[in-house]
Amino acid sequence: MKVAVAGCCHGALDKMYETLELLQRRHNVRPDLLLCCGDFQAVRNEADLRCMAVPAKYRHMQTFYRYYSGEKKAPVLTVFIGGNHEASNHLQELPYGGWVAPNIYYLGYAGVVRFRGVRIGGISGIFKSHDYRKGHFECPPYNQQTIRSAYHVRNIEVFKLKQLKRPIDIFMSHDWPRSIYHYGNKKQLLKMKSFFRQEVESNTLGSPAASELLQHLKPTYWFSAHLHVKFAAFMQHEINSKEELPKATKFLALDKCLPHRDFLQIIDIEHDPNAGDSLEYDAEWIAVLKATNSLVNVTQSSCNMPENNGLHAKWDYSATEEAIKEVLEELNHDLKIPCNFTLTAACYDPSKPQKNMEPVHTINPQTTEFCAQFGLTDINDRIHQAKAEGSVRGENEEEEEEEEMDSTGSAEEPSEYNTDNSGLSSINPDEIMLDDEGGDEDLSTCSVDPSPDHPPDFSASFSDIRIMPDSMAVSSDDAMDSTNEELEKSGVSKQVEEKSLTERPLKRIGGNENGDSGIKKIKRRNQAIYAAEDEDKTE
Predict the structure, then answer these.
(1) pLDDT band at residue 262 using 50, 70 and 90 as cut-offs
(2) Confidence of residue 236 (pLDDT cuts 50, 70, 90)
(3) Which residue ranges have biased composition labelled Acidic residues (predicted)?
(4) What share of the chain is helix, strand, coil (3-state, %, to 5)?
(5) Cα-flanking dihedrals φ and ψ of residue 207, to 5°?
(6) How far are the Cα atoms of 296, 366, 385, 454 from residue 371, in angstroms, in the given order?
């Protein structure tokens, strides 16, 4: 079957689906499934906009609300993960996944589903070591801290995914797995994005949690977005036992949605011709959710996941064949995900704007039904209970705790990852800084205008990728020159980046000789990521 993969669509659903229709008309290609790797922006109304971590001047309604209201319906089944620019209050209603609109499915904080026999997994958000070991404690109305921490990856989601034993066909993450750039045309990547150089050379670009999942799950395909550049890589995994067969992952990062950009990729995926056309639950994933339910944490307290280190009585929460069989019996062997989408908030009405609409913490009936069916903890209901019992810290206490914690997470326990080797404290180098006062970053939402003169280029495929020899663990700058020929087609201008940024290389440090925090340098980096949008508008 044909699978279309998109990067950050930033709420421009009309434009994304129009591009798919153009593809069908001009090239007779009709995807069976659309995957989106984050920054989907399922914004229903003005309250949702207030829960999106972007400066106010970049809060635009875009077009998702038309699909939420039923005015329009997605022409192709769409499955997406969350990024770092989302209506977090909306996605929080569906921690285990669910329908955000008819034919548009969110995978949740982490999730695995099946479509036509193809196994699709994903993890939402971006990595930040400071919040990694906390529970999902945030709820609207958010403050300046929680509006950001709400989309940070948690260790429990990574732990759940690491319990999977059966093969994964496709996996999605918003930020890139750390080190993946060593397995593609790194030289070409740094030509496109010269301000990545120091982080690439110090091996600090990307998510260490995603890298751990990549090495554990070894999916056939891994798709990411976030950095707004197209990049392909091929990773040959190490063989850990004589019984293990060689495995490799084809990685592709997608560009953001902009006019004349090659922001969509069409992949041919082997599927089960006897499988139905419905999105289905994954029995092993449901069994893992049941097994790990006791580990759910809805507080700011940091905790490590169980390990085989002598400190935990149990550390293996993988699903047994018996547990998987029990799930199948519970479902009467009918894994079809029910089409139980429900409106849980008022929909935006352009004729009656409500700029002062406040977000509320909502329990979604889809989540209630899912948790009741499989005996799982409804995270939002647990947060409601915790608030009622006074066990969730107040805002002032929360801010004090933030100051006490170090860059690894908790003041009491070390993090599972020694992530910020350069001493950048709790700043995530991949995360867009959201300082309204600075005004030097461009976080404007994207649109895609299909043009007869500039049809999207879908010619590039993984057939163009060279397979590295088994003996080559990491490619050199000159290796795999043909891997990313499609990068040159994406139309990103490099002159401004290289002139302004190579003269002042980024320093990933907590401070400098002038006492600056280093945040402005990070913001310049992110400004350069987004600068291409203005260039495209002048073409």
Answers:
(1) low
(2) very high
(3) 396-406, 432-443
(4) 30, 10, 60
(5) -100, 125
(6) 13, 9, 16, 47
Model confidence at 114, pLDDT cuts 50, 70, 90, reads very high
**CA–CA dist 393, 396 (Å, integer):** 8
Q: How far is CA 207 from CA 152, 174, 296, 363, in A?
A: 11, 9, 22, 30
Contacts of 412 (CB under 8 A, 6+ apart): 302
pLDDT at 506: 36
The helix (H) or strand (E) run that includes residue 223 is: strand 221-224
For 364-393, what is each residue's pLDDT tens digit? 999 999 999 999 999 999 999 988 887 545
Rounded to an integer, what distance in angstroms lies between the CA atom of residue 337 and that of residue 426? Answer: 39
Q: Computed from CA positions of residues 497, 503, 504, 506, in that sequence, does the dihedral angle turn out positive or negative?
A: positive
Nearest to 97 by CA among 169, 160, 162: 160
- The span from the CA of 103 to the CA of 493, in Å, is 36
- Residues 259 and 490: beta-carbon distance below 8 Å: no
| CA–CA separation, 379 and 385 (whole Å) | 10
b/e map of 42-55 (b: 16 or more CB within 10 Å)?
Answer: bbbbbbbbbbbbbe
Contacts of residue 215, Cβ cutoff 8 Å, sequence gap at least 6: 237
Q: Which amino acid would we find at residue 236?
A: Q
User: What integer is the mean pLDDT of 349-376?
Assistant: 95
User: In degrees, to the nearest 5, what angle opens at C-alpha 452 toward C-alphas 448 and 455?
Assistant: 60
Q: Contacts for 382-387 with beta carbons within 8 Å, 24 or more apart?
A: 382/296, 382/298, 383/136, 383/137, 383/139, 383/298, 386/137, 386/298, 386/299, 387/139
Q: What is the DSSP letter of 246?
A: P
In our burial notation (b when 16+ CB lie closer than 10 A, e otherwise), range 510-539 reads beeeeeeebeebbbbbbbbbbbbbeebeee
Q: How far apart are CA 520 and CA 537, in angstroms?
A: 26
Cis previous bond, 141, omega within 30: yes
Interval 130-158: pLDDT, tens: 999 999 999 999 999 999 999 999 999 99
- Is the model's pLDDT at 421 over the cut of 50? no
- Indicate the length of the chain as a whole number: 539
Record the tokens describing residue 137, joined without a space. Answer: 């404690």
Cα 297 from Cα 455, distance rounded (Å): 48
Residue 505: pLDDT over 70: no
User: Nearest-CA neighbor of 364 among 135, 92, 78?
Assistant: 92
- Which pLDDT belongs to residue 307? 92
- φ, ψ of residue 158 in degrees (nearest 5): -65, -40
- Mean pLDDT, range 316-345, rounded to an integer: 97
Q: What is the DSSP code (8-state) at residue 412?
A: S
Residue 360 predicted with pLDDT over 80: yes
Query: What is the pTM (predicted TM-score) of this model?
Result: 0.78
Nearest-CA neighbor of 208 among 161, 155, 169, 250? Answer: 155
